[in-house]
Amino acid sequence: MRPDDQIIGPVQEKGADIVPLPSLEQVREFIRASKAESTLRGYQSDWRHFLGWCQVHDFCPLPAAPEAVASYIAECARHLKTGSIQRRLNAIAEAHKAVGLESPTADGMVRNTLKGIRRTMGTAAVQKAPTLTDDIRAMVDATGAGLIGARDRAVILLGFAGAFRRSEIVGLDAEDCRFSKDGLTITLRRSKTDQAGVGRKIGTRMAGIGVARIVKKLAERAGLDPAKYAGHSLRAGHATTAAIAGASERSIMNQTGHRSVQMVRRYIRDGNLFRENSAGKLGL
């Protein structure tokens, strides 16, 4: 066997059909398809920001020195949360991997700088309030008439009953919904935890931000503080309300699609805070 055969395979006989190798652009398309579009857009935005920062401070962005990256995230810490800083580091890492370079984000200086930022700023995320059953009823009652009102009610009720992410709500098509005597079955063709598009069925197209706007609008009409609610309140509200009612974590996971108990517990916002509280057993 010739050396070239180890790379391109054995040479075919003359006259045989020759199957062309995939082009480099085809390979790049597959690599791009390995990540969600929203993730890619975030990386592109963060990478452009880093490029601009390097230009202002006369640093080379590719390959970037660990000292430059550490200085960059230290400056970002003045106005960004730790989660956003981590996302920018991910973008820098991906840009280096794309051209076969070692990422500076793995350097000890960068990791220790990020660790110091986390210890100084904390990592607790500001979570939106869950919409409980009474909140949902008030928000549905606050919807208007006509098509807009019908759409708003569908968004609120589907998001709450199905424990959907807002991206899952806006990704639904009419053919994804099937009515039967037992209720409504919805097929999710792709979600955050199912990037391969295997799909899953849930019993029970606008932009993603539209869901948050509807929730905030109806929360205000229902007499709730709109600043505390967003699209994610529906999903968190389902998990919290179910936990208060005594639903098992496993049954909640079956509905939300979470893969780990630890993750679903983050969505059960204070649902068991008073239902299973040792202070109530003290006899005071």
Task: Please explain how this structure is put together.
Strands 1-2-3 form a three-stranded antiparallel sheet, with no helix packed on it. With 284 residues, it is mainly alpha-helical. Helix 3 (37-57) packs across helix 5. The protein is 52% helix and 5% strand. The chain has helices at residues 5-8, 24-33, 37-57, 66-76, 82-98, 108-121, 133-141, 146-161, 166-170, 208-221, 232-244, 249-256, 261-265; strands at residues 177-180, 183-188, 200-203.
Short description, anyone?
By secondary structure, this protein is mostly helical.
Fill in the keyword field for this structure.
disordered N terminus, 284 residues, mainly alpha
Radius of gyration (CA) equals: 25 Å
Following the backbone from N to C, one meets helices and strands in this order, namely: HHHHHHHHHEEEHHHH
Largest sheet, spatial ordering of strands? 1-2-3
Number of strands: 3
Quaternary: single chain
Number of helices: 13
What spatial form do the alpha-carbon principal axes imply?
Answer: elongated
Mean pLDDT: 75
Report the biggest beta sheet as strand number plus sense, adding barrel if it closes: 3 strands, antiparallel
Distance between the termini: 85 Å
Structural class category: mainly alpha
Residues in helix, %: 40-55%
Strand content: under 5%
Stretches with pLDDT under 50, minimum 5 residues: 1-16, 191-199
Topology of this protein?
Blueprint: H1 5-8, H2 24-33, H3 37-57, H4 66-76, H5 82-98, H6 108-121, H7 133-141, H8 146-161, H9 166-170, E1 177-180, E2 183-188, E3 200-203, H10 208-221, H11 232-244, H12 249-256, H13 261-265
Antiparallel strand pairs: 1-2, 2-3
Helix pairs in contact: 3-5, 4-6, 7-10, 8-11
